[in-house]
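Q: Convert this sequence to structure tokens.
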Amino acid sequence: MSYSRINASAATLTKNRTEDSISPNSGMCATCIDGCIGMCEIGKSAYRGHEVIYPQPFGVITTAAEKEYPVDYSHFNIMGTAVGAHGIEADSDKAVFPAVSLETTFGHDNGIKFKLPIMIPGIGSTNIAKNNWEGLAIGTALSGTGLTIGENVVGMDPESVIKNGRVVDTVDLKRRVQLFTDHQRDGYGAIVVQANIEDTRLGVQEYAIEKLGVQCVELKWGQGAKNIGGEVKIKDLKKAQFLYERGYIVLPDPTDPSVIDAFEKGAFTEFERHSRVGMVTEESFAQRVEELRAAGAKYVFLKTGAYRPADLARAVKFSSKYKIDLLTVDGAGGGTGMSPWRMMNEWGMPPVEIHSLLYHYAKRLDDAGEYVPPLTVAGGFTFEDQMFKGLALCAPYSKLVGMARSPIAAAMVGKTIGKTIDEHQVPVYVERFGHSIDKIFVTASHLRKELGDDEFERIPTGAIGLYTYYERLAQGLRQMMAGSRKFALEYMSRDDLAALTPEAAEISGIKYVMDVDKDEVDKILGC
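A:
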């Protein structure tokens, strides 16, 4: 069985000529014919070269791998029970699913509180993030959840003011923070400012702490989509030159006269801006944590990607030793920006494997009496069943589920529906629910009542889309937790899951479904 698709994908706008007859190892057509115009990835690479490395069209898509991993979260089932209740009185009139609490607190003083266990990790300088930030920030704030401003936002902002290599004023970062804080309710949720090596050199986090009042900052080692730094494409020559002068890696060199000539003649239409990869050492990590706390950061987080197990162990150990307030571990397979397509499919630790190791590493430290940081599990989560499984797999250490592509999708759909309402062109698929915001969005009446008419009218439909999507996740998760008789997140445990295959059981340490409750069964049967 092949787990990967090769040489043709909607992500790279390529396809095979003989779609029903393809070599499984190479992905090539079984008969590659002289005279073909090159619709496959090999063929397109023959005339567009490195451009075909990346998913297309850039700037209006998010992307996830097509690779089918041998084990994924669908290989586990949630175990319910007919007995008792945890976190509420075992009374049928009280133990109803709306009574399930999804609130969670974390941080060294438990000072961060979320209404729902959801964090959007690392939405940075890509167009897809910038163009949907209004919906993401306001929707997150209204939901009482978390949102991370990702890497390179300041460096990419032409209106940022940088003096002596340090940022002293911004437009984009300031806007992103304020859109969240202006709509935050009752102190729920958090806006987080992340930094890569370029951001650190610019002093982005110190600026966010001192000038914007940001309390949560995050160190970034990587993400699940790729094992290199952040990337975007630039269509404007002047902006490419501007970023080159700011110190970014820009390909091809936008100051080279021959490159400028080729661009102006239309030989290519986009430059690539790349970030450098960081070099992790314990000494530099400890120093940076100390610097951020000295600068006034109330909470310091760490996000790491789908690197090899030794790097995961470093992340867990360093987070323990230096009392990190939240550790996010992102499994391979997805991304919100310009990750190389083959890299996204073929590198890194898949979610179930890396999260299983994460649990075991955390437990080893816990058993040794060492501090275990609160955990966020990330990597392809979209619905309430997956949320339940991710939280249970790493219980009792997991606090949040990280999701990016699905919240962006919800915000984009909400935004698009709003445009169709304004243009009086609501699609047939949607108009069966009505032609107004109040009729189409099922949470609109609730939000209008909570916010009041004036404030509600100012809320963008992208934010309502995200809020409504989260409302669905919350209700679905409450139903599943009630079925397992767990009425608060703190009561979730690995025993709430069963592995459907011996391989899933071996990898995760979760019991195989036929072995669940064996001891209790023997006691019940008594023979």
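The chain has a mean pLDDT of 95.
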